[in-house]
Fe2+ or Zn2+ uptake regulation protein
Amino acid sequence: MYISNQLACQIGLNESIVLCDLHQLLQETGGDRVVLTYEEWQKRLPFWSPSTIRRVVRKLERLGYIESGNFNKNKVDQTKSYRLNNEELQKQHIVLTEEPLFAVTTSFMEKTEPQRTEKERKRQIAPTFLKAGA
């Protein structure tokens, strides 16, 4: 998933991550709606709790960037479906791009650490602070 710096500054980093994840899901499925529980979304974004995702999704709904609804025939099933509100996104000049401005991986398996020598791993470097005016 790729998130532009401009988008993160415009609507917030958390909101950008969820918006881009929804955009990516819609592209993967080829549909205009996707059905997800907060727990399923949390599996996609494991660095957040379901309550954080719920809070961010609700904010995006209030802003009008995403629309949601419960279209289940079974009233016990409260799973919501989500879609992007492209009209509102365009009105606010929000562009969801595939350009790799900075990447967010949602899998810990994809996480890579720079290669270090044994000597570098053993050595601890103290942080360096610059004095004002230096």
User: Anything to note?
Assistant: The longest strand covers residues 80-84.
